[in-house]
Amino acid sequence: MQVRDAYARLMDDVVLVAVEIPQVGDERHKNWAKVVDAVDTSKASGWAYDGPFIATGGIQDVPIGSVVLVYGERGSRANPQITARVYTVNPDSTLSLEAEAKGKAWARTLRDPVEKCLGVETPAVDLSYLTDDLLVAEMKERGWRVERQ
């Protein structure tokens, strides 16, 4: 019998390690963590990060190689100071800090580093709609010599 876990993978395929998930904010405010499985690039908020939530401030079992996003707030309720960090989970039950962002723009700031950690490549920009003359002019403007083959 095969059992599925919260990460939608077969239990036989997942190697879990016990990791101390830090709490980056004050316990009186919002604090959460999530194992990020995917990023929705159409969103620039915290809703862009897909994956199961895990508790902060204690030990959690997470898959080796996972990307963990930790969010926390400090300060007053009227003016909370936001900190968000991205970690990768190592086989020795440690976390490697990959990126950190502060302030209200944290979600968009961390989107590219999270995608890099997940191994998601940024798609190439499609320039096929531009005319050849326009492309040649731009390349020459940048100091390139361009010849038609």
Care to give the gist of this entry?
The chain has 149 residues and is of the alpha+beta class. Helix content is 15%, strand content 34%.
Mean pLDDT: 87
Number of strands: 9
- Roughly what percent helix? 10-25%
- Structural domain tally: 1
| Terminal CA distance | 60 Å
Look at the helices and sheets and give the structural class.
alpha+beta
Order of helices and strands: EEEEEEEEEHH
Strand fraction equals 25-35%
Please state how the strands of the largest beta sheet are arranged side by side: 5-2-7-8-9
Q: Give start-end ranges of low-pLDDT stretches.
A: 1-11
The global form is elongated
Question: What oligomeric state do these chains adopt?
Answer: single chain
Largest sheet features = 5 strands, antiparallel
Total count of helical runs of at least 4 residues: 2
Radius of gyration using CA atoms only: 21 Å
Protein topology:
Blueprint lengths: L15 E6 L9 E6 L1 E2 L9 E2 L2 E2 L3 E6 L3 E9 L4 E10 L5 E8 L3 H13 L13 H10 L8
Structure in words:
This protein has helices spanning 106-118, 132-141; strands at 16-21, 31-36, 38-39, 49-50, 53-54, 58-63, 67-75, 80-89, 95-102. It is an alpha+beta fold and 149 residues long. It has one domain. The protein is built from 2 helices and 9 strands; from the N terminus they run E-E-E-E-E-E-E-E-E-H-H. The protein is elongated, with a radius of gyration of 21 Å. Strand 7 (67-75) and strand 8 (80-89) form a beta hairpin. Helices cover 15% and strands 34% of the residues. The N and C termini lie far apart (60 Å). The strands form 3 sheets. It has a 5-stranded antiparallel beta sheet with strand order 5-2-7-8-9, covered by helices on one side.
